Amino acid sequence: MDTTSGSEADDGSDFEHEVVIRRDMIDPEIDDIGHKSRATYLIYEPKQRQFKAFCASMAYADGDHVTEEKLYQFLNEEVLTQPLTRVRDPDNNTPSYNYARQYVSAIRELWQHQKAEGMVSRNAPEPNGPSVKALMRSLMQRNPPPRRIAYTDWELLTFLDKYRVPRDQMVSHWRSTIEPERKLRTMLDFVLSRKMMVSGHSTRQALLSDLFAVELPSEGSTPCFALVFLLLNGQANKSGLNEFSGAMRNRDVLSCPFAMLGLSLFYRYHIQGEDPPDFGSDQYKTVRLLRTRHSNTRVVPHQQQYDSVTSMFPSNDLADYKKSYFGRGPGAREANLAIMNEPQLAAGPFNAEQQASWFVGSLPRIMMRSQAGFEMAIGSYTIRRAMFDPPDDLLAEIFPWVDDWLEREGQPAPELELSAFRTLRLLKLLRRFIIQDAVLLRRKFPSHPVFNHDIFRSQDYRTYEFMLGHVCDRFDDLEELRDLKRSYQTLKTRLTALEVDVGVQCREINDALKTLKNKFPNELSEVLSNDGEVPRYHFCRTHTTVRELWAEWHTGINGSPSIQSLDERYGSKWRRTASDRQFYSRRNAIIKEVRRLATETYHNDVDAAIDRLDAVRTDLQSKTLHSLATLLLHQSRGQREADRVAARDRRNAPDEPEA
Questions:
Q1: How far is residue 249's CA from residue 32's CA, in Å, rounded to a whole number?
Q2: Residue 589's domain spans which residues?
Q3: Which one of 24, 279, 390, 404 counts the least CB within 10 Å of its CB?
């Protein structure tokens, strides 16, 4: 009888069963290259072999099974102690953080394969554990960035790299008559990487059949076509699904993907004499977009592409960095600056999930308009060199074999595929673009070898060149007028918005002043007071003694100005209401009495006069300032009445006879 517990037996059997299923799912005919790009395989495979050799030399009990302890020991004793052969700084050949990180990634992938094959437990921890992470952090802190060590161009591959458009180098390529095919290929490589935001690896591996054209409706006054790049073998496309990247026909002919593609193919098929593709077999699927000097099916070597791209950048004493990504990163940053507030930006190929809805308008057109040199609003797309088409006889001289193949479309020809017709339609469209773009390029670079072909010397082309050149010149004048009109409308809109903003701010200031006046009436009145503005003063009606009233009258209370200063500065204007004027008159009677007593009775002793009036107030029944003011006013009126009677009696009395 089995003594093993039921739970343990079940766990073990489940694990063995899962391992069998996983092994059955692995196709023995697919090697490691099938699970990753070839470049990644060439980097990881030697490092994994080195790790296995290290484990064999250490004679571990479990062999080369990947664990955190083995990886840490391998990095410390094997990787970080070996000298480097290719370094930027000859004085510093110690392994860097990036160098060690490649080993960690390679060994971690080996651990994933071992786990999938059941060599390690499914619950085994990641080999990149705390000890390995601590070691990598110490390497990062110990080694400064290589670009700072080598004094490389720090602006490259940064936010400022948007401005590094080597237009002068492109112009020099067009003016040069040495190796025109290589320079046309380099300019095509650069423009595709820049406008479609793909890496150099993608353009190097691209086939001619990976490109096709789609017309985008309702974009402007001239037909709008997008060049679409089918990415099946990109470094970022690890799943192998279809991904797309696209670019519109550009306003600037030097930055137009269609122009560079068309003239590069024209040079290959009409000047170099390359054989046309055979669309009746799979041979056309092997034709590379960028061909080598001796073959159109071989991939351009990385070093050859690297050297060609180097010629596109300004020559200086700084070492440029990562030229394989010379177009993708700057192109994404350039689009990001143009449509910073738009949600359609995707810094790279379009997501594979969008493939199903791609043909119904899911391409990020706002980004593509911006990359093509147009405004983001729909309807702004206008290509001046596409105002009218070249004559058919002239078009038929370019890629004449295209018409022979397209005549088979719709006929029962099982040897032809839809992808072949897609490529043929692109080539037919390029014929028109080649003639139109050549009109502008031939003006600037008449000595380029591509324009020495008989097609550009024919009478049909010369006639078309004259007509299109005249239209483009007139179109430039109209464009200037449109630009001025757009600038005027933009300025008018901004001024209107500014006027609205000023009005809103004035209303907000007035509301704030009203709130402050209601909250601090006396304080704000003093702050805002000047010769042209009469403040509003509120009397204090809570005084109970003559001394408090005298203080308000002569020195002011609670930070408010004194009543005497208001009288001297504004007269009676500051007493605005009848209630204020009556209250002022009653309180002024007390102040006048204080001054009279101080002058006539107490020899200018104001304090004695104030105490005397306060004593009179306390003898009154109500003992208030109001009662004291009433008494003084009555006395004043009685005195004035007695004075009037005496004056009247003196006027009515008979004159006394002289003695």
A1: 40
A2: 546-648
A3: 24
Is the pLDDT score of 269 beyond 90? yes
Question: What is the per-residue pLDDT for 483?
Answer: 64
Q: Write the Ramachandran bin of 623: left for phi over 0, alpha for psi from -120 to 50, otherwise beta.
A: left
Encode pLDDT of 451-471 as tens digits: 999 999 999 999 998 888 877
Q: What is the mean pLDDT of residues 328-341?
A: 57
How remote is the C-alpha of 548 from its chain's centroid?
67
314-334 pLDDT per residue, tens? 554 334 445 556 666 566 556
Residues ≥6 apart with Cβ < 8 Å to 535: 525, 526, 528, 529, 561, 566, 570, 574
Report how far residue 162's alpha carbon sits from residue 197's, in angstroms, rounded to the nearest whole number. Answer: 13
Same domain, 622 and 478: no
Residue 237 CA to residue 220 CA, distance in Å, equals 34
**Residue ranges of the alpha helices (H) in 520-557?**
521-528, 546-554
Listed in sequence order, the residues at least 6 apart from 563 whose beta carbon sits closer than 8 Å to its beta carbon are 537, 552, 553, 554, 556, 584
pLDDT for res 401:
92
Give the whole-angstrom CA distance, residue 415 versus residue 280.
5
Question: Is the same domain home to 331 and 475?
Answer: no
Which residues lie closer than 8 Å to 60 by C-beta, 6 or more apart?
Answer: 70
The distance of Cα 424 from the centroid of its chain, to the nearest Å, equals 39
Q: Given phi > 0 = left and psi -120 to 50 = alpha, else beta, which region is 285? A: alpha
Query: CB-based contacts of 609: which residues, under 8 Å, 6+ apart?
Result: 593, 594, 595, 597, 598, 601, 602
pLDDT surpasses 60 at 363? yes
Q: Could you tell me the two tokens for 246?
A: 């696209």
Q: Is the pLDDT of residue 345 over 60?
A: no
Give the separation between CA 64 and CA 48, rounded to whole angstroms.
10
Query: Any alpha helices (H) in 536-577, and if so which ranges?
Result: 546-554, 563-570
Q: How far apart are CA 263 and CA 430, in angstroms?
A: 9
Lowest mean pLDDT among 170-179, 323-332, 350-359, 372-381: 350-359
CATH of the domain at 242: 1.10.443
Q: What are phi and psi of 443, to 5 degrees?
A: -65, -40
* Phi/psi-derived region of residue 522, left when phi > 0, alpha when psi is between -120 and 50, beta in every other case: alpha
Q: Give the separation between CA 419 and CA 510, rounded to whole angstroms.
A: 71
All residues at 6 or more sequence positions from 383 whose CB lies less than 8 Å from its CB, including other chains: 222, 249, 251
Residue 194 — φ and ψ, nearest 5°? -75, -50
Q: Which of 167-181, 506-520, 640-654 has the lowest mean pLDDT?
A: 640-654
580 and 498 assigned to the same domain: no
**Who wins on pLDDT, 554 or 348?**
554
Question: Are 541 and 581 contacting, i.e. CB atoms less than 8 angstroms apart?
Answer: no
CATH code, domain carrying 75 = 1.10.150
Other C-beta atoms lying within 10 Å of the C-beta of residue 11: 11
Question: What is the rounded CA–CA span in Å between residue 41 and residue 35?
Answer: 9
- The mean pLDDT value for 107-130 works out to 87
Q: Count the domains in the chain.
A: 4
Closest CA to 232 of 285, 154, 166, 174: 285
Handedness of CA 466, 472, 475, 476 (dihedral sign): negative
